[in-house]
Amino acid sequence: MKNKKMHKVMIVAIAVLVMVSCILPAAAAILPENVIVIEGDVGDKFSAGDLVFEIVSNEEMDRVLSQPQTRASEKRWEITLSGTSMSKDFLVTKDYKYAKVWFRNDSPDDEGIVFNITRGTSTGTVMSGSSVVLESGYSISVYSSTAWSASTYYANFTCEAGLVGSALCRVASTKAELDI
User: Fold this and answer.
1) How many CB atoms lie within 10 A of CB 56?
2) What pLDDT does residue 165 have?
3) What's the rounded Cα separation, in Å, for the pair 92 and 53?
């Protein structure tokens, strides 16, 4: 009797192991390697290397989009996200060595937007830690805790179901000048 029970338990354990070994690789294949999924509460911060991702309120996002450029920072661009893929460049110089990108995912289909920052070209080397998925209904800002090297960088946005949202980039001579 004990052997039959033990045999059934082993069969169930093996079946679960097989299921898990099939499901986990499939789930991992959904997102590129080293991608952080951004979800949480306003004020939550996620760090990856020198980059800091902060969930911001919709009110802050609206304020960033509507406020005129300050003397302390320079707006590089403001865009409406559309299509399935967009890239927008921003120049970091020796005088303006800090950058901050804000973006909001307004997808009605609960689709996440894949975001990363590349250097040199839109298909260049992805900056370490910059690959994230922003879930629908969230707004974030991303900035570096240290000065950026002078170069042209690209903010890249992708969503196979279609991009819906907005984004903005500012540069400044100090990190504090980027705060709105």
Assistant:
1) 21
2) 92
3) 19
Tokens of 1: 């009797």
Tell me the three state secondary structure of residue 131.
coil
User: Which letter does DSSP use for residue 162 in this model?
Assistant: -
Distance from C-alpha of 165 to C-alpha of 107, rounded to nearest angstrom: 7
**Strand-pair category, 85-92 with 73-81:** unpaired
CA atoms within 13 A on the CB side of 7: 4
What is the rounded CA–CA span in Å between residue 105 and residue 140? 9
Spatial CB neighbours of 64, under 8 Å, sequence gap ≥ 6: 102, 168, 180
Residue with tokens 């984004």: 167
In the block, tokens 């990363």 appear at 116
pLDDT tens for 10-32 read 343 333 333 333 333 333 334 45
End-to-end Cα distance, the chain: 72
Tell whether the model's pLDDT for residue 8 goes beyond 50.
no
Selection from 137, 133, 138, 143 nearest residue 31 by Cα: 133
- Tens digit of each residue's pLDDT (9 = 90 or more) over 127-177: 888 888 888 889 999 999 899 999 999 999 999 889 999 999 989 998 888
